[in-house]
Specification:
- This protein is an alpha+beta fold and 392 residues long.
- It has three domains: 87 residues, Butyryl-Coa Dehydrogenase, subunit A, domain 1 (Orthogonal Bundle); 115 residues, Beta Barrel (Butyryl-CoA Dehydrogenase, subunit A, domain 2); 135 residues, Butyryl-CoA Dehydrogenase, subunit A, domain 3.
- The protein is built from twelve helices and eight strands.
- Strands 1-4-5-8 form a four-stranded mixed beta sheet. It has a four-stranded antiparallel beta sheet with strand order 2-3-7-6, with no helix packed on it.
- A hairpin with a 2-residue loop joins strand 2 and strand 3.
- Helix 10 packs antiparallel against helix 12.
- The longest helix is centred in the last third of the chain and has 29 residues.
- It starts with 6 loop residues before the first helix and ends in a 6-residue tail after the last helix.
- The chain binds flavin-adenine dinucleotide.
- Flavin-adenine dinucleotide binds next to strand 1, strand 3 and helix 12.
- The site of flavin-adenine dinucleotide has 20 residues, from strand 1, strand 3 and helix 12.
Length: 392
C-alpha cells in the first residue's frame, strides 16, 4: 500500500481545511463527539450555517452518485473530508440521512421514494433518526418485536424503540419492524420511513451519564403509515439493514479527533512546571497514546484502500471500530490523569482547561464501545470472519 496522498488529494485536504478555517469561530472548542444533538443554540446555528455551505459545494453527500446530488467522490476523498471535519470537531453534516438512510433508499426504494426523499437529504433540509434497537433487541437486533401489521392501504405500528439518537429533533425515522411474526426471526422484518410527528408516536428523551439527552425512547401506539412507506420488499428488511453499504466507514473520526486532543494535551503539558513535565508516568502514557494514534490511523486508511480496490471491508472495519473506540477511551483517561481534579470541571467553568471537554469526553466515550455494535460483537466478527474461527 502506498500511504502517500496524490497531489489532488493533498489539494483537496487543503481546500477542506481552508473552508473550516473560514467557517468556524477562531476560538472554536469543538462540537460534541456524538453530534450536534446535544449542542447549545450557538453550536446548532453554526452547524446549520456549515451544512448550508456544504450543500452549496455538494460536499454533504459527496460520495453519492451525481444523479442523486452527490459528487461520486472517491473513498480516499471521503476519508480526508471526514478526517478534517472530525479533527476540527465541526458541527453540521448530513447525519444518518446521508450515511445510511439515503443509500438504502437508493438501493431498495421505488422511483417515487427516491424523488421524494433523496433531494431533501442532499439539501440538508430534513433530519433522520434510526429506529432499530429495542429494550430486548440490541446486539441481537433480529429479535426486535415492534410490529407493523397491514390494514387496508396502511401499516399499523405498535411497540417501543430505545436509544434512538436525535429522535426529538428528527423529521423522519428509518424503522425496522416485524411484519411476519411466524417466520424465522431474520426473515420477518421490513423497513419503513415514518414521519416522526405521526399521531401515536411518543418520544421520551433519556438522560445519559454525561447528563445529556441525545437519545430517546420512542413509543408507537397504533401509528398508521401508508403502505407506500414500506422501503424494499416485505420481510426482506433484515437484508436492507445488514447490507454492506459501499461508503466510508473507516472509524477515522476516532483517530482524527484524538489527534487534536493529544495536541491540546501536549500544549497544556508544556505549560506545566518542569518537574511535572519530567514525570515518567505521564511521559510514557503520552508516548503510548501517540503510538496508538499512528497504528489506528493507518488501520483506518486501509478501509478506503480496500474499497478503492473493489473489496468490501468487513472484519477490517470491525478492527478499526474496535481499536478506535477503545483508543478514544484511553485518550480520555489519559486526559483525566493529566489534569487531576481539574478534569472534573465541565464546560462553563472559568478554571476548566480545554473548555471543560476532558471530563465530558471521559464520560461520553463510555458509549463509544457500545453504539454501532459493542466491542464484544466486533471481536466476535473478527474471530469468525477474520480468523475463520467457529461461531461462539
Ligand atoms: C451513543 C449511542 C447511540 C445509539 N444510537 C442508536 C440509534 O440511533 N438507533 C438505534 O436503533 N440504536 C442506537 N443505539 C443502540 C446500540 O445500537 C445498542 O446499544 C447496541 O447495539 C448494544 O445493544 P444493547 O444496548 O441492547 O446491549 P446488549 O445487546 O443487551 O448487550 C449487553 C452486553 O452483552 C454483550 N453481548 C451481547 N450479545 C453478546 C454476544 N453474542 N457475545 C458476547 N457478548 C454479547 C454486549 O457486548 C454488551 O456488553 C445507540 C447506542 C449508543 C451507546
Amino acid at each position: 500500500m502506498d500511504f502517500r496522498l496524490t497531489p489532488e488529494e493533498e489539494a483537496f485536504r487543503q481546500e477542506v481545511r481552508e473552508f473550516l478555517r473560514q467557517e468556524l469561530p477562531a476560538d472554536w472548542a469543538g462540537a460534541d463527539f456524538f453530534g450536534a444533538e446535544e449542542a447549545g443554540d450557538s453550536t446548532r446555528e453554526i452547524g446549520r450555517r456549515i451544512t448550508k455551505k456544504l450543500v452549496e459545494r455538494k460536499w454533504l453527500a459527496m460520495a453519492w452518485p451525481k444523479e442523486h446530488g452527490g459528487l461520486e467522490a472517491s473513498h480516499m476523498q471521503q476519508l480526508i473530508y471526514n478526517e478534517e471535519l472530525s479533527y476540527h470537531a465541526a458541527p453540521g453534516g448530513g447525519g444518518m440521512g446521508v450515511a445510511w438512510v439515503g443509500p438504502a433508499i437508493m438501493l431498495y426504494g421505488t422511483e417515487e421514494q427516491k424523488q421524494r426523499f433523496l433531494p431533501d437529504i442532499t439539501s440538508g433540509k430534513v433530519t433522520w433518526c434510526t429506529l432499530y434497537s429495542e429494550p430486548e433487541a440490541g446486539s441481537d437486533l433480529a429479535a426486535l418485536q415492534t410490529s407493523a401489521v397491514q390494514d387496508g392501504d396502511d401499516f399499523v405500528i405498535n411497540g417501543q424503540k430505545i436509544w434512538t439518537t436525535g429522535a426529538q429533533y428528527s423529521d423522519w425515522g428509518w424503522l425496522a419492524a416485524r411484519t411476519d411474526p411466524e417466520a424465522p426471526k431474520h426473515k420477518g422484518i421490513s423497513t419503513f420511513v415514518v414521519p416522526m410527528d405521526a399521531p401515536g408516536i411518543t418520544i421520551r428523551p433519556l438522560v445519559n451519564m454525561a447528563n445529556q439527552t441525545g437519545f430517546n425512547e420512542v413509543f408507537f401506539d397504533n401509528v398508521r403509515i401508508p403502505k407506500e412507506n414500506l422501503v424494499g420488499d416485505l420481510n426482506r428488511g433484515w437484508y436492507h439493514v445488514a447490507v454492506a453499504l459501499d461508503y466510508e466507514r473507516s472509524g477515522i473520526q476516532f483517530y482524527a479527533r484524538a489527534r487534536r486532543t493529544l495536541e491540546q494535551y501536549l500544549s497544556l503539558f508544556q505549560e506545566q512546571h518542569a518537574a511535572v513535565r519530567r514525570n515518567p508516568q505521564t511521559r510514557i502514557e503520552l508516548a503510548d497514546r501517540y503510538v496508538e494514534l499512528h497504528v489506528g490511523t493507518w488501520m483506518s486508511y486501509r478501509i478506503p484502500y480496500l474499497q478503492s480496490q473493489g473489496a468490501i471491508p468487513n472484519y477490517e472495519a470491525s478492527i478499526s471500530k474496535l481499536y478506535g473506540s477503545e483508543f478514544a477511551q484511553r485518550v480520555a483517561s489519559t486526559g483525566m490523569r493529566l489534569l487531576g481534579s481539574f478534569g472534573l470541571l465541565g464546560p462553563g467553568s472559568a478554571y476548566a482547561p480545554m473548555a471543560g471537554q476532558i471530563g465530558q469526553s471521559y464520560v461520553q466515550m463510555v458509549a463509544a464501545t457500545i453504539g454501532g455494535g459493542t466491542s464484544e460483537v466486533q471481536r466476535s466478527i473478527i474471530a469468525t470472519r477474520g480468523l475463520g474461527l467457529p461461531r461462539g
